[in-house]
Automatic annotation (TrEMBL):
Pfam families: DUF4093, Toprim
Role of this protein: Required for correct processing of both the 5' and 3' ends of 5S rRNA precursor. Cleaves both sides of a double-stranded region yielding mature 5S rRNA in one step.
Species the sequence originates in: Enterococcus ureilyticus
Keywords, alphabetical: Cytoplasm, Endonuclease, Hydrolase, Magnesium, Metal-binding, Nuclease, Ribosome biogenesis, RNA-binding, rRNA processing, rRNA-binding
InterPro entries linked to this entry: RNase_M5, RNase_M5_C, TOPRIM_dom, TOPRIM_RNase_M5-like
EC class: hydrolase
Nucleus keyword on record: no
Record's protein name: Ribonuclease M5
One biological process term in Gene Ontology: rRNA processing
Classification via HAMAP family: RNase_M5 (MF_01469)
Gene this chain is encoded by: rnmV
Length: 198
């Protein structure tokens, strides 16, 4: 494949291996955060990149990747996001950590084609009630973590803990209808319904 997809925005990744892997698949410039302790210089670079060309945050689907995403979002709240599921970022060798560098060409391309942009503030957004999230077993109860992981993949909003979930759903303007549809797609209906279907 000689004609690589050209990405206008600068992609923010964690390290050299991610840069190498992304540049094998697409024609893009990157900024490396060099781990989760991002310094001021790198944050300034990211800010400048957002002003000039826009940035896509593409970190690993793990705890430190989410921490980096959060840190950048405080400085550049309107940055775009690309997400990989934990499954697609799984290493071939046991013992290695999850990472963008382990993803296939197809997974990287799909993640970049389905980039999402958070909405900063909007008056007409109806926040999803916490009770609804509890009913769907996303906040409390057995397998809540597993359900949130599946939901994050389905909605392409990344993995969240129960505290972050409401915030992330609001940030990406996920409606209750979209949430219910996604839960149907991953076969996770509220407990009273799922027990009947077992």
């Amino acid at each position: 494949m000689t004609d690589k997809l050209r990405i206008e925005e600068i992609i923010v990744v964690e390290g050299k291996d991610d840069t190498r892997r992304i540049q094998e698949v697409v024609d893009a410039d990157t900024i490396e955060t060099i781990g989760s302790a991002i310094n001021e210089d790198i944050l300034e670079q990211i800010e400048h990149a957002q002003e000039t060309r826009g940035v896509i945050i593409f970190t690993d689907p793990d705890f430190s990747g989410e921490k980096i995403r959060k840190t950048i979002m405080e400085v550049v709240p309107d940055a775009q996001h690309a997400f990989l599921s934990r499954q697609l970022a799984a290493p071939k060798k046991r013992g290695n950590s999850l990472g963008v560098e382990h993803a296939s060409d197809e997974a990287i391309l799909e993640a970049l084609e389905k980039v999402v942009t958070p909405i900063i503030e909007s008056d007409d957004y109806q926040e999803i009630a916490r009770q609804t999230l509890i009913e769907y077993g996303l906040i409390a109860g057995a397998r809540a973590k597993e359900r949130r992981e599946k939901l994050g993949d389905e909605l392409r909003i990344g993995y969240t803990n129960s505290k972050q979930l409401t915030k992330r759903l609001k940030m990406f303007r996920i409606t209750e209808k979209e949430l219910i549809e996604a839960m149907h797609n991953i076969n996770e209906l509220p407990s009273e319904k799922s027990e009947e279907s077992i």
